[in-house]
């Protein structure tokens, strides 16, 4: 049995690193805070006697040896956060994995296969896009060189920042090869909490589309330039952003759409914006609908830009089709949940996760625990300690079943 | 006759201060660049033997003595710029005023009344609101203490910055008392250039309304939060901004509307915005229509905020009713323009100007010269040298007529 106290303590301790005044944490990928978080976590891995390797994109893998030298069963998640994040997103999956290892070690249990606990670089995609970058590189979905060259809005590249914080490791990409992967995570949405269910059995991850639009107009005086003569980049940005919101309402169902970032230049009250850069985040469990939403947004942006006489360009920041998890892993999670006498609900994941990348190379699945009021990417993100403990216990059972095969 | 070369040289020299790579200038009010611009201009005033005084809000007045000790006829404008401004906005009026004094001095001419050349603090309102702050304080329209306490988005106050750059002077507010005020300025709009007219005779300034809206929602995960459960501050910002644009088109005529500044927090691709701060700039020559536009925007913002379940507050950054200039000064400008054989057009000013504040305490008027393609608040702002010279010559004639009265 896992120790709820030890798990809670480790979450609180890692939550101190990059803590924000008034709660929550800012540990954007590859910042100094991320480095400190990595150091704390690696130290904990070493305390548990695990063999730690770091690969060329900064993914950290720690292995608890099995009785046979087989590919490990892996768990894990990420420890980077958004700028105003909570203490659970990602961190919980990593620390619960280490809690499982601590429990096995205390009990003197060695499974047949090794158990690996990993944390992947830049899962959030808040500073560098795409999200799930480390796991995507790990599975060969993004060339290492391209990932390293990715530049943040602050001007830094992934490669520079990895070297600066000392986390570009010697391990080869894709090593170790894993047997299977199970990720434990807070739901980040409202379903389990609202329905009073203890464990979410994740069937898959919805499709994700991130696009950055750049509008180039002409700055001019807000008081002297007739409406008809304007080339206002800001007008195009806000019209497209309003359209994106209406599109989600019009599609209904599982369509989500968010404009979370807008930058106008020069961003002054009496100057017509010369440039606008904004992002569009579209999600759907259905690939065809997602593609249709993307096409509508692009067409509307082009039409608005033409009407305003400005240039409109865009680049894809991330694009992942919906992913279905391995049916046997899903079934196993459901069975072990029920065997522990816990209530279970099958559901899709709204957020992207490293498990969806690992699913490209091995049987993979995910376990969710409830998020109070469905809050995440918010400093008030919270999961009840009992739910945290239940999730870790399910993880232990599932990992042991996989590792004993 | 004024010297076109000397005028052009002084504009080029002041344009070096805070020059941007690739053209244009950044001399936001009370920055180090503004201090350097002030030093350059004060040195030029002293070279001309003028008596320089600086008041408690940093307005700088230089007086060329007349034959009698009467209240001076004043000209001038401002030397602060927007973040990506041109070389003419404001600077031209100040330097043309000094060119008039240099011409009189070279010719050994002393008018009956003194001639004063002033530059007023923070006319642009780009860093601190309201705009025309120095002239507004000068005429008693804004208490000094309130102006000094005004805080910029960068956290600094007007008072701190004035003291830091050494421009909080000993002269009392409202001194010297002036006889009359004439400001020479580039049009900043397209009318004179499009119609091929040499001199604009400004009849008044349209009304200006600046409001800052702050929307407070709840940040949450873009991938997990159903549309119906969101409290997205960004959605309200973009809907209101799009409405503001549509309102201007719907009103037609002389209604202008601009959302030049938007700030989302945390401003990340996959995080629903917790806070949005944006500005609305509304202008109209008709006060009743302007008030009606303001009321519509407020009502729509409140309605959007309610629909999204977020808080909406606002503060007035600036509000000036339309101003009519003194009919005799307007007539005098028109007569002197025609006497020089130049073409003239009566028109309203789209931009706010220090002259509209001075109009509260003395007969005031303005002279415009054409802006090529109506560009302003843009690094490519340009006025032909011949037009610059013509405007300065009209200014000389008008000032002499007023000073000889
Ligand atoms: N789990 C999580 O928050 N991932 C970030 C990527 C996303 O936006 O879905
Ligand atoms: N002349 C000028 O650009 N003034 C700035 C204030 C305004 O926005 O009208």
TrEMBL record, chains A, B:
Domain annotation Peptidase M20 dimerisation: ranges: 205-302
Keywords: Hydrolase, Metal-binding, Zinc
Cofactor note: Binds 2 Zn(2+) ions per subunit.
Binding site for Zn(2+) 1: 78, 89, 185
Cofactor: Zn(2+)
UniProt protein name: Zn-dependent hydrolase
UniProt similarity note: Belongs to the peptidase M20 family.
Organism of provenance: Polaromonas hydrogenivorans
Pfam family, one: M20_dimer
PANTHER family per UniProt: ALLANTOATE AMIDOHYDROLASE, ALLANTOATE DEIMINASE-RELATED
GO molecular function: hydrolase activity, acting on carbon-nitrogen (but not peptide) bonds, in linear amidines; metal ion binding
Amino acids binding Zn(2+) 2: 89, 124, 377
